[in-house]
């Protein structure tokens, strides 16, 4: 292994097992047949009906048949994972409660959502069942969602149909600084199911490819229709031209709909523009979606009080797996997490090869938090000023008396899919991108303008929000405060004492990282000018040299914190999020500028693709396979069959020429 002072793996071997050991032929029984994958509760069981209000009713799918009577509408999966397929490098299925014992090829996963173009299913491989294709040009997704909700309206406290044109007027509920409706118990004593909106972020000039259609159809079918209305899915379209009066002129709104939204999705599309936020939050002064990614969610929440939770879903994300299983398991994981030491746990990457089981990882994290002199654990709201009035709860007892019980069973107000961390002592580019907060003279020589404003960052905007968190964000915007998009939700949750959880879903890396070294780079905890030990070949920039011969970190730095600051994972000057180190994410399956997700997805689709990593010095390096994939690869190796994995970014999904 050869590395440089920024932690770059210059000569790390690419893991080709993602392709050579990922096919159906590598399953324990290559003649196994994919079967329907149904991760839904036993809705009609005695236990379920004794707990939840109302009765679940099956809904119709795009083939105009009830789902319980239509194999064609069901995602299918193969039992097991191909032998030799790499384990996740970060997070795991087991940690979050996801199914790690099933895999999906492109036909079992996307088969229900292919259109009538026969090229998509021109296959006779063993294990593939030919489906009757839907005529999606005639499908009205909005009608299907509404009809499904009406069938199941008794299961929800507010089962009202959602307005697609809420307008720009500020509803009374948006003026209420004490929050909105809180979901309660039914008169029978049973619980209502919550309702969740899934907002697929897109914009006026977005170029929709066939695979985009398939991804949107999958989200609607799996989250909304099969769940009996627990989720509602909308295309959330940013009209960037503020000169189009979509809020005041119905004809202009319809023109924009016809011009920018595929006809198949007209009745699930909600158009918006930045103009509404200038009206709602005049004191902020910065309303561009780049810096204010979540103002649209706040507007949607306040104009749609029927929803309790909101997924901000990126158009360039793809889930190889079943969406309902993912969102429900992530929600369940967050619900069971105690609040004690949660913010500290949120900041650290779980690397199974270095940390062992997730239980071992959490125990080690808790021990570090208890014993480290370098951190003060978070307990309750952390307001930035005396005038701020947190909307979150006051802790029921002191931290030392709590036995990891507070928060268990409580829904999370914010769920992120990468760590939540404190950027103030890092070189992350937007650490001080705050609007209308008071500056401090402290640390001015280091360029840190807001050292006293508590805040947390999360990277990538695909996340789940509660109504309460969006309300708190709304209140702060009304007062004129705002931050960069990556800072905003985590910081407001921290300041207001709301429950935020990083869900360590499985993430793969194209490189084969040594486990301990990966931990040192991604969970770096200090800084200093280090010196190299005999036999070592890397100063990792923290005053701690990594000795590749011995496979461990050497404590030989000469800086003031040469031993590191225990518990300050990724929150010091050697943070992996700093500009000179962030390139280490380049081979991740879930990071905003990695090329690995696209390559993996292309090859899974049966298309030829080449994987390249561009280093910070501009050097490109391929994996050992080069340009591979396609029908010849399939014939020799079999179709790729991947376990459930969330990929991002996957842009411009169209077959190579």
Task: Describe what you observe in this structure.
- The chain is of the alpha/beta class.
- It has helices spanning 17-20, 46-51, 93-96, 106-110, 141-151, 172-175, 210-225, 250-260, 275-280, 295-303, 323-336, 342-346, 352-355, 358-371, 467-478, 488-496, 515-522, 596-604, 630-637, and strands spanning 35-36, 76-79, 102-103, 196-203, 231-238, 269-272, 309-314, 318-320, 414-416, 434-435, 463-466, 482-483, 500-502, 545-547, 552-554, 612-614, 620-622, 645-647.
- The strands form six sheets. It has a seven-stranded mixed beta sheet with strand order 6-5-4-7-11-9-13, with helices on both faces. Strands 1-2-3 form a three-stranded antiparallel beta sheet.
- The longest helix has 16 residues, at 210-225.
- The two termini are 37 Å apart.
Largest sheet geometry: 7 strands, mixed
Using only CA atoms, what is the Rg? Answer: 25 Å
Can you count the helices? 19
Backbone structural class:
alpha/beta
Total strands: the figure is 18
Q: How large a portion of the residues is in β-strands, by DSSP E?
A: 5-15%
End-to-end Cα distance: 37 Å
| Global geometry | globular
* Largest sheet, spatial ordering of strands: 6-5-4-7-11-9-13
């Amino acid at each position: 292994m050869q590395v440089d002072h920024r932690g770059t793996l210059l000569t790390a071997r690419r893991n080709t097992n993602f392709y050579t050991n990922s096919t159906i032929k590598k399953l324990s029984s290559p003649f196994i047949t994919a079967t329907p994958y149904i991760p839904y509760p036993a809705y009609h069981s005695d236990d379920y009906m004794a707990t939840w209000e109302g009765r679940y009713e099956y809904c119709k799918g795009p083939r105009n048949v009830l789902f319980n009577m239509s194999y064609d509408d069901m995602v299918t999966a193969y039992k097991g994972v191909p032998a030799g397929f790499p384990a996740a490098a970060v997070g795991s299925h087991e940690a979050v409660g996801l199914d790690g014992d099933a895999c999906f090829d492109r036909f079992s996963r996307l088969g229900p959502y292919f259109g009538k173009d026969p090229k998509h299913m021109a296959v006779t491989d063993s294990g593939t069942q030919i489906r009757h294709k839907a005529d999606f040009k005639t499908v009205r997704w909005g009608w299907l969602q509404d009809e499904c909700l009406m069938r199941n309206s008794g299961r929800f406290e507010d089962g009202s149909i959602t307005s697609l044109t809420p307008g720009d007027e500020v509803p009374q509920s948006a003026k209420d600084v004490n929050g909105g409706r809180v979901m309660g118990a039914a008169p029978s004593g049973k619980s209502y199911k919550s309702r969740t909106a899934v907002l697929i972020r897109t914009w006026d000039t977005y170029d929709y490819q066939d695979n985009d259609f398939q991804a949107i159809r999958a989200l609607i079918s799996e989250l909304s229709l099969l769940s009996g209305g627990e989720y509602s899915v909308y295309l959330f379209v940013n009209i960037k031209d503020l000169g189009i009066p979509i809020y005041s002129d119905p004809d202009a709104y319809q023109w924009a709909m016809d011009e920018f939204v595929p006809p198949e999705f007209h009745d699930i599309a909600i158009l918006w523009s930045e103009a509404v936020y200038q009206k709602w939050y005049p004191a902020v002064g910065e309303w561009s979606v780049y810096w204010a990614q979540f103002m649209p969610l706040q507007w949607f929440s306040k104009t749609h009080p029927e929803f309790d939770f909101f997924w901000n879903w990126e158009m360039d994300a793809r889930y190889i797996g079943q969406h309902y299983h993912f969102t429900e398991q992530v929600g369940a994981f967050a619900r069971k997490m105690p609040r004690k030491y949660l913010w500290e746990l949120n900041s650290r990457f779980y690397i199974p090869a270095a940390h062992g089981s997730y239980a071992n990882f959490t125990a080690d994290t808790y021990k570090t938090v208890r014993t480290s002199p370098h951190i003060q654990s978070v307990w309750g709201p952390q307001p930035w000023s005396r005038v701020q009035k947190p909307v979150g709860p006051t802790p029921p007892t002191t931290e030392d008396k709590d036995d990891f019980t507070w928060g268990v069973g409580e829904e999370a107000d914010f769920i992120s899919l990468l760590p939540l961390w404190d950027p103030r002592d890092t070189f992350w580019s937007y650490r001080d991108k705050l609007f209308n907060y008071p500056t401090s003279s402290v640390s001015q020589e280091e360029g840190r303008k807001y050292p006293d404003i508590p805040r947390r960052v999360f990277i990538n905007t695909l996340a789940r929000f509660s109504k309460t968190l969006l309300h708190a964000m709304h209140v702060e915007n009304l007062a004129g405060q705002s931050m960069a998009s990556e800072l905003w939700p985590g910081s407001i949750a921290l300041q207001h004492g709301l429950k935020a959880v990083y869900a360590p879903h499985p993430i793969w890396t194209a490189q084969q990282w040594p486990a301990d070294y990966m931990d040192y780079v991604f969970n770096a905890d200090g800084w200093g000018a280090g010196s190299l030990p005999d036999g070592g070949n890397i100063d990792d920039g923290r005053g701690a040299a990594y000795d590749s011969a011995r496979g461990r970190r050497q404590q030989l730095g000469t800086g003031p914190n040469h031993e590191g600051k225990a518990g300050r994972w990724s929150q010091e000057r050697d943070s992996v999020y700093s500009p000179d180190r962030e390139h280490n994410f380049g081979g991740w399956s879930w990071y905003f500028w990695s090329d690995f997700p696209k390559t993996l997805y292309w090859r899974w689709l049966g298309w030829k693709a080449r994987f390249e990593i561009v280093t910070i010095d501009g050097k490109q390096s391929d994996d050992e396979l080069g340009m591979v994939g396609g029908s010849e690869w399939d014939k020799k190796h079999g179709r790729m069959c991947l376990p459930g994995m969330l990929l991002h970014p996957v842009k411009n999904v169209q077959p190579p020429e």
